[in-house]
Amino acid sequence: MDLAAETRGTGPAIVCLPMISTTRAATAAAFGPALAGAGLRETYLDLPGYGDSPAHCRPTSQAVLDTVIAWLDRHLDAPVLLAGASYGAYLAAGIARQRPDLVRGLLLVCPGVAIAPRSRTLPEHRPPAGPAGWLDAAPCDLRAHLDTALGHRTPAVVATVLAALTAGGPGDEAFQQALRTGPGYALADEDTDTVFDGPVSVLTGRQDGIVGYTDQFHALRRYPHGTFSVIDEAGHYLPYEQPALLRAHTREWLRRTRD
Q1: CA distance readout (Å), 154 to 131, 136, 233
Q2: Which residues form a coiled coil (predicted)?
Q3: Which residue from 251, 246, 202 is spatially nearest to 224, judged by alpha carbons?
Q4: I want to staple 26 with a disulfide (CB 3.0 to 4.6 A). Which of 22, 79, 125, 143 is the partner?
Q5: Among residues 199, 208, 209, which one has the least CA distance to residue 231?
Q6: Res. 125 pLDDT band, cuts 50 70 90
């Protein structure tokens, strides 16, 4: 099965994988500003069942990962740089475990480490209160999620995140529901401490109430050349909350990939 993709620029390849429930348009809005001018061939993918990619695989994370691996094998000369946010970072780390020959470096932003929410270590303290009415523009059914997810709590950030969440097509909603609620949502090897020896940068949000930042630090044992950063006034949507800091950390990671 092929995947819908958008490619920009020329040079060494970097493939960027999306957060769950988002499309390649949202991923480009997250990573594009951080990668601008870096001299890379940027590729943004829609995962199976999302955006413009058909749901022609089983609704499991392993099947989704296998589909991405097959796409990389067909379309790019390995190894490549991989970047991802949240679920996209979870998949990127899985690819590095299962097919390290495909991966030259990892940029993991607010990565999922454990799929099951009960297995995650979340921040003990609530984020500081935002200004009055900071969530007013959000639909009622998203306000609790954004209140949990965001550390930089302003109307401008909310507007940026809402634009990302609604960018691109809706995809196959039945497939998405089956993926997120089925027994195959977790990769069987998510707890495996397989070492990936390439340059890695892990960025987390201090106020991320979705995946936290502690588990990501402990997972750093898998990356002997890994840098870990936890950013204040940032939550689960860090690329949209702190774009300048994402750009700075991305540039430092890219320098290490070229050494």
Answers
A1: 7, 10, 11
A2: none
A3: 202
A4: 22
A5: 208
A6: confident
Residue that is written with structure tokens 């497939």 in the block: 175
Whole-number Å distance between alpha carbons of 40 and 179: 32
Domain carrying residue 16: 5-258
* Interatomic CA distance for residues 168 and 104, integer angstroms: 29
Q: What is the mean pLDDT of residues 11-39?
A: 97
Q: What CATH number did the domain enclosing 124 receive?
A: 3.40.50.1820
Q: Please state the domain count of the chain.
A: 1
Q: What is the reported pLDDT for 78?
A: 81
